[in-house]
Design brief:
Number of strands: 30
Strand content: 25-35%
Helix content: under 10%
Shape: elongated
CATH class of one domain: Mainly Beta
CATH superfamily of one domain: Cadherins
Oligomer: single chain
Distance between the termini: 158 Å
Structural class: mainly beta
CATH architecture of one domain: Sandwich
CATH topology of one domain: Immunoglobulin-like
Largest sheet: 6 strands, mixed
Radius of gyration: 44 Å
Strand order of the largest sheet: 22-21-24-19-25-26
Length: about 525
């Protein structure tokens, strides 16, 4: 009896559970993203612009509609295909794009999105995308300089030509640009060329200027290479020998072009010489690693006539480089690479014709300028921008440089130890050096002797030096032929020379006559 009652209870529970209603699934809305279609302005109302893409998680049937039109320009089918409305047409010049708001609905929920219709004009001109090419100067006529990239908005076939009839180049219908027959490039003549390319689709034409950058190839004649160090030698006799010295202790690996067709490969620092069959002036070029030139006491010193170009040589030392080159002139417009040079001592000593513009030299690494322009009687270049922050020696730098009167008043000479005879015999020099920081100086003997400092400039120099903090004591100043005047100058000189003061000895100057 109990078993029958239990069976009846379980049966009723099963019947009760099975009779409960099934749960209702919640509707999920469709997703419609912003979309863009691109059409030709020739598109007509019978052409489809595009069909919307929509995602419905439940797979429900979707209906489409235009919520916001563009002046009733468009129509759309229930399956989401957009086309032009009857009687409408695109006009690229009036509008390059149109925007409409569309809706996708599953009957319960909907989603909106913006549709952009981009219009491509009819018979638009080709578009040229290339701007420049880079080639080596030794390319041949069979080498392709570059392919001019161009496209036509309507996909029409393109034809290429050179608009300015530039005889140096040619182009084929694939846009491949090359040298014309029997033509060549020369870096030394022109580092770049500009050519006008014309691209046509048969109806419209586009012109584009293309730049062709030429890269240098080091080749003879080396005197034309911008990277070469170039000088000239002059011979007056047949079979006359010229040459130059070098430094065997420094690295050398260079091409030596003597300018008469003789070219040598040099890999050591030994002196070099050459015999010229005929008298004349020859350009001698050095290209490569060349550390130092030495003309001091060289029999060809007076035959060296000019410096034409410094080139890309990384110099190591200029000590006595052009000493005694009395006929040396200067035509270079570039500057030597002094990044590893510390010694310019005697560089132009007794180069009596030299008056080169060396204002653009970077001498910031140099420590020694001793006798650099000694006896360079023509020299009067602007050196006001030179940075002497590391220089220790300028003794006799302008001694007997009888034309020099450059403005050196702002030089940083704070590390200079020796100024002995710096302006001795520089009888055109007349500057106020009172602003020079002489605190590191140990020797100024003969420094101003036989220069041309005026009474005013010499007086102000004494005043400036006496007023410096840290002015050295117990040194001798050479000032032969100079005159000081004025109360402040007298006080300054007395302080400098007072045994209880700075204990200087000043030689050769005089006070101005008292009224």
């Amino acid at each position: 009896m109990k078993l029958k009652a239990l069976f009846t209870l379980v049966f009723c529970a099963i019947i009760s559970f099975s009779c409960e209603e099934d749960p209702v699934q919640e509707n999920r809305p469709p997703t419609l993203e912003d979309q863009t279609f691109t059409v030709s302005e020739k598109t007509s109302p019978v052409d489809e612009i595009g069909t919307l893409k929509v995602v419905d998680p439940d797979g429900d049937p979707i209906s489409f509609s235009i919520e916001t039109n563009d002046n009733d320009f468009f129509v759309m089918t229930n399956r989401g295909t957009i086309s032009l409305a009857n009687g409408k047409r695109f006009d690229f010049e009036m509008a390059e794009s149109h925007n409409i708001m569309v809706s996708a609905s599953d009957g319960t929920a909907s989603d909106n999105a913006t549709v952009t219709i981009r219009v491509i004009g009819t018979d638009l001109a080709p578009i040229v995308n290339s701007n420049a090419f880079t080639v080596m100067e030794d390319i041949s006529t069979t080498d392709i300089i570059g392919t001019v990239e161009a496209e036509d908005p309507e996909g029409e076939e393109l034809a290429f030509s050179i608009a300015d009839q530039n005889p140096l180049f040619q182009i084929n219908n694939n846009g491949e640009l090359s040298l014309a027959e029997d033509q060549n490039l020369d870096y030394e003549t022109s580092e770049f060329h500009k050519v006008n390319i014309e691209v046509s689709d048969g109806t419209n034409t586009t012109q584009k200027q293309i730049t062709i950058n030429v890269q240098n190839v080091i080749d003879p004649p080396y005197a034309l290479e911008k990277s070469s160090f170039v000088v000239t030698f002059k011979t007056t006799l047949a079979n006359e020998e010229v040459g130059f010295g070098a430094d065997e202790n420094l690295p050398n690996d260079y091409i030596l072009d003597w300018g008469d067709g003789t070219i040598e490969k040099i890999d050591k620092g030994s002196p070099q010489s050459h015999v010229y069959e005929k008298p004349g002036t020859y350009k001698v070029a050095i290209n490569g690693q060349f550390s130092r030139i030495i003309m001091d006491n060289h029999p060809s010193a007076t035959k060296l006539m000019s410096i034409e170009n410094w080139g890309a040589v990384e110099w190591k030392n200029f000590r006595t480089a052009f000493k005694g080159c009395s006929n040396l002139t200067y035509n270079a417009t570039d500057a030597p690479n002094l990044s590893t040079v510390t010694d310019l001592a005697y560089m132009f000593r007794d180069a009596s014709s030299f008056n080169g513009d060396v204002s653009n030299w970077d001498v910031s690494k140099v420590t020694n300028m001793e006798q650099m322009f000694y006896g360079a009687s023509s020299f009067n270049s602007d050196l006001s921008s030179w940075e002497l922050k590391n220089v220790l020696y300028i003794n006799s730098m302008f001694q007997n440089a009888t034309s020099f009167n450059g403005d050196v008043t702002s030089w940083n000479v704070s590390k200079v130890k020796s100024m002995a005879n710096t302006f001795n015999g520089a009888d055109s020099f007349d500057q106020n050096l009172g602003g020079w920081n002489i605190t590191a100086v140990t020797n100024i003997s003969g420094m101003l002797s036989n220069s041309k400092l005026s009474v005013e400039n010499y007086s102000n120099t004494l005043i400036g030096w006496e007023g410096q903090e840290g002015t050295p004591t117990g040194i001798t100043l050479g000032a032969h032929g100079l005159e000081y005047c004025g109360f402040d100058a007298v006080i300054a000189r007395n302080t400098l020379t007072d045994i209880d003061g700075l204990d200087w000895v000043i030689q050769g100057d005089e006070g101005c006559p008292q009224p």
